[in-house]
Queue: 3 jobs
Job 1
Amino acid sequence: MKKEKGITVAVQTLNPTPTKKKTIPIEPVRGVLTSFVEAVPQDLRGPDKVLYMLDNIAKIPSESKILLKEYFDHLLITMIEREASDIEVGGHGNDGYIWFRIYGIKERAMDLARFSADETTMIIINLLNSNQRKYLAVAKNLDFSYTCYYERKKLNIRFRADAYFELDTLALNMRSINSNIRPLESIGFHPSVVKVMSHNYIKFGLSLVTGITGSGKSTTLDAIIDEHNKLDPAHVVIIASPIEYVHRSNKCIIKHREVGRDVLSFKDGVIQAMRQDPDIIVIGEMRDPETILAALEVTDTGHKVFSTLHTSSAVESIDRIVAEVNPHEQERVRHRLADVLVSVVSQKLLPGVDGKLILAKEVLVVTPSVKAAIKNNTTSEIYLMINQGGPMGMITMEQDLKRLYQNKKISLENAIAYANNKTRIQQLLSAL
């Protein structure tokens, strides 16, 4: 392809420093890929071929590994310059193309080189260290973080990555992590909501930020941490898979522990944190019963805890936590959750009228009435409490979508499409 004659990249080192750009022709990159792929025994198929490549990638020369990483960094810089949030590499579904998600739309990068499934498998494997390769071979999935140097802006860009098997081939998604934290005030929380999430105001309690994948949960969580870092002389321990934004200690001392790299599991990280003199513990995701129980226990011992769930509403978040544990423990967990929960923010990113993404959110502040509803297992009543809790900063997703539509931020179609309660959004909009 004529457009593949050369690429411009910045060299990545273990301790990246500003370097001069250099142009690398695509032919040597393809040469490295071809020579390795052709050396794979032809009788190997599917996962056996991938496992062979995982075991033998270390045998290629160092200069070849560097060349492949430089090419991959070029793809990541291209992603950033096109204002894409995600990149997709490899796998059967990619059909050889590199794909980007730009303002919520997934599309092929038609002007970039195409590669075979074996070639992209090699590109992906080359990004991993030996422990990560071993884990991927067994678990068939690996979450990790990656950093490359962006020469033009003189900064390191971090990415959250997920490598996985797809129809016996290897695929990779990477999402860029904002190099600048969004100010908490820009998210639009009511002062009462900011207060209940503040360690200075309430020294213990569980605050949740929920939403589907790609809804901006990490951005909101980082904004909350950064606000504490400006004002609160506290010890913050962040346990995540992977670590995304790396905070620099200011008023707070902030420790980062990546699951699979610094600690074996979320549960272990939470339990170990209790012996590390924390004030605030940030759990990247409560993804299993063990982590949920550990989070409730550490909150119950007098710590401020922030975490995330993949749920689309405040009521669903409460129900999910209870449903995740064994039935014989659900009554105990329901009462403990009612005692420690202080707030839930459920959010979505939806297309705005300007083509960019707009944040819509539902906010629950836990009042005595909400506590009683959780303990009595009448969580269906909580939606009405949120609906009527405006003076305390509460807002339903439908109320916020109505606000965004009235302010001409989103279209009528998207206001309806992204509502959790279709009947309620129709009622609100018909009253306009």
Job 2
Amino acid sequence: MQRVKNTIVRIALNPIALLFCFMSRAAALASSTVPTNIFAPQSTPAKSIVHLSFFVLAITGIIFAVVFTLLVYSLLKFRARSSSASSEPAQVYGSTQIELAWTVIPVLIVVVLFMATARVVHAIQDAPMPASAVEVTVIGHQFWWEYRYPQLGVVTANELHIPVSDPAHPTPTVLQLLSADTDHSFWIPELAGKTDLVPNHPNRTWMDPEHTGTFEGQCAQYCGTQHAKMLLRVSVDTPDDFAEWVREQRQAAVADERVSAGKRVFETTACINCHSINGTVANGRFGPDLTHLMSRTTIAAGAALNTPENLRLWIQNPDAIKRGSLMPAMQLSKSDLDALMGYLETLR
């Protein structure tokens, strides 16, 4: 019951929450993607939430207009006049009609809002999924995102790839939401509403984007020092592009003898305690899978663009990009760092 109440409140307040959140992250990541537009939903769940938000806004706007009009009317009609400064206005007690009005009307308004919100919550949470749906397990970490595609045998991080959903042949993406540490909240405003990731309590959401493109979001639950830089990027691909991306992600890391020295540095340092790379001894789970690191647009969960310069700085001094992150500074010598960079740049 508490979960339903929280969902209702979040959906009803969604326009205000969206506005303040995305004003606060205006300087987060300079990229070529189109800025998030809360009034341009691109998925069924987002459209349902926006329509409900406009309905709630219309009702509350009417309430505001009525109350404001009555207030102005009362101020003008019953303002103090010099001719009646010493007299007391007529007193009215026990008006049954007025008491019924200010009791029944608010109750009816609350019931209407509750029923409309409950209908949207039910439509989103209990929507049947076709057999063609893509399943993704999303795991929230401090402070990055892990994505696992159990049907496809793909593991990646921070940048979620999903296929576009053709209304004639729906291909929604169903997200199983888990947390590895504390509370997080998965939120792509143009694709779906907020859904919390709670330790030991799996949640679920879904998206069926109508158009290709890149959509940005944000962890919407304070989860620690770098909560503000735990960003989300969803790439909606055509069916062919998505199939090609899956094929590439299934491949093992490139084995290039020219960067064997860098591979040796990776395998003999603390890197392997947190990260994993297919085809190597590294099988860590505390940090992102790096098998196809250079295929991603950003690093550090969207905190910086994935360029050789930024990647080098991230390895040398993570706090320079994301203060408070759990990535340790590796303290490598220049020769080891150069070799490691040469190796990492082959992971495409």
Job 3
Amino acid sequence: MIGPMPKRSVVAAALLAASLSSLAAAARLYLWPGAPAPLLLPAPAAPPATEPNLAYPVTTRSVEVRPGDTLVQALGRAGVGARAAAELSTLFTRNGVELKKLRPGDALEVSWTHRGEPIEVRYAPSAWVRFSAVRWGRSWAITRAETRPDVRVEAVRGEVRRSLFEAIDALGESPQLVVAMVEIFESDFDFTADTRVGDRFRLLVEKRYAGEGFVNYGRILVAQYVSAGRVLSGVGWVPERPGRDAFYDLDGRSLKKSFLKSPLEFTRITSGFTYARPHPILGGVRPHLAIDYAAPVGTPVRAVADGVVTAAGWDGGNGVSVTIRHRSGYATMYNHLSKIDAGVRRGVRVRQRQVIGYVGATGLATGPHLDYRVSKHGQFVNPLSERFIPGEPIGAAQRGRFLERAHTMIRQLEAQAPF
């Protein structure tokens, strides 16, 4: 039988227990929250003050990029010091961030310690890429995270009640889709002059999602537009020389012609091609060998085909004007402009769809509009009825595979978006 301990032994034991308890508490004090505490180990050295200490709350604030902002300026508004902001700008650039492409509305997120020190800066230039700078010691560690788009092929179908834009908007889709569809058919169909109430359209389009959030559109795989009994079909196909997808009809003929139907994307015709029109300013009946498009001042005017500028400047009653020479004896004129686009001058080569000027009311004009003219071998012709040079068809080597794809895509479109 063990007897009671001597009084001095009891005191010594109590002191030892208290010392061990204090040591264990000290060891736990310096551990990250949630980590298991080792038994009777000395406390590690405290981390540098510039590294995040997760034992204290972290606050995060967001700052929006303004027009003309640099990264340094935006971070400065968020409260980051000039020296740290400059260092972050340099490190982000070295790690692949294109800071010249900062866009108004982009957001920067800055996290702070309880002492008011920035410990992390996050910037997402797109829904697919995110950069993060984390304070570590006396510098910053930069990381890049990428999200793979979730691409889904979806059917879109609608009917024009007032306008094509209104029809797309009623479906909850973006105006981007209108522009993309118009580009497919614009060489064969003038959406400015020929769009009618009751026109129908349908297409299969790739939609790209980040998680469950829609981000943007990918490729249009197949599209149809029906107007006044006429059915236009366009099937996307990567040509033999890889590049931008091209669109072809169901027989493999290119939908991209050498000339666009209209130099303006969306407007209305106010005066057609005629040899006898009452002149609104000079009086009398005179030829009007042009198409007049009504549009607000500043509306972009596009070159309808590749060519070389032969005149650009003031041209009497035509006002500010541009003339372009094209192949096969064609030339086009764009009159009454408010101004000519930078770089467009005599001798310069321009591309189809390139903006060459902007709608105005210069010269003999009663209001803002574009006077558009086409000549062939020196004689003016009606742009709306002229049969321009077709584009290149599908090559013989690819024709069989294209036709198989075209019929497959049309069947899929009819099944998913029946009229």
